[in-house]
Amino acid sequence: MSNKIKKAELLLDRIGEIDDSLLSEALSYRPQRRAPRFALIAACVALSVMLVLGAVGALDFISSDRFQNDKSPTSPTPTSLDEVMSELDGEYEKLSEDELPYRDGNSYLVWQYSGESGYYVASLQKTQLQELMGKIGKGDEVGESSPELECKVWIISGGSVLSPYLKSNRGNIGSEVFEYDAEIYPTADFILCVSAILQ
Amino acid sequence: MEDCKIVDMYWDRDECAIAESDKKYGRMLNSLSFSLLSSREDAEECVNDTYIDAWNSMPTARPDNLGAFLSKITRRISIDRHRQKHRQKRGGVDNLVLELTDCIPSGESIDDELESKRLGEALDSFLYSLDKEKRVMFVRRYFYSHSIEQISAGMGISESKVKTTLFRVRKALRDELEREGLL
Questions:
Q1: A5, A18, A32: which to substitute to probe chain B, counting the most B Cβ within 10 Å?
Q2: pTM of the predicted structure, to 2 decimals
Q3: Is the interface score ipTM higher than 0.85?
Q4: Per the CB < 8 Å rule, is B76 touching A25?
Q5: Are A87 and A98 in contact (CB under 8 A)?
């Protein structure tokens, strides 16, 4: 065996002794997903159209009789999943990642608060799942910088895992929950639906 | 089950520790061993040997990261088995060794244990100096023995970029080892 091969084998052996943290990092690494340029442009156009339509609608509403006459208080509507999850009082089961029921044939809403290691789990009925699935993956894109999430959310069903913060067409399927940066905001409908299920 | 509980079971000489280790890490260890040996049968034997080694090591060892602890044992046992059985054949380990000769400058050999320890420290220090993407790529290739295709798919980058990056990292490692007077 040549001297060079022998030394390379020694190096190979030493690589087997590198820090544990490097091994964990290599296994848990997930690539940053970047929104394609055309998707960003489409999102900007969609946002502009929504703003114009919203402004027109608001002007109509302000000038309408309804606005003049209806002054009754309304219940506050949650505007984000963070808000919904922060109002829960801890009545849900908390599991470790290994205990998550990926393949028991049922569907679950799973969430994890920032800085906590466990996952909270709420069972979903079939109709609730269908309602959520009809509203997932349709939100506005977050743009270049992802927002800091206080709570990450997943839906587990039939061995698949989806997040309302990720686009469902790329890398959003697979039977494990994983760290992610938000690509899209969940829609208001989705947030209301989750709020109704959990409260 | 959490790592610390499994480690406690090893310390308590509870044989369920092996079943729990296999449940949590068996698939990953099998995959690691198979990538080095290209044989399901050998890989399974190496993973079983890993649990025996772990059983004999705990106590006294108390690893914080059981997955990394078992991975290192599996990798060592698999490489040893490969060396025993396939000296004459070219396979996964040989390919890694051949690639790593890029990191080896010409010169005298070093067998001294102290130098070997220094090599380990230099290696850790070098890896921490890399940016995260390069570091992950290097560890996946040379610790976990992932193929270029696996790394490309897992990291969302092209195969040619993986090859180019690994080539540059190997050259940078050679420069570093030369600078440190190692290898």
A1: A18
A2: 0.52
A3: no
A4: no
A5: no
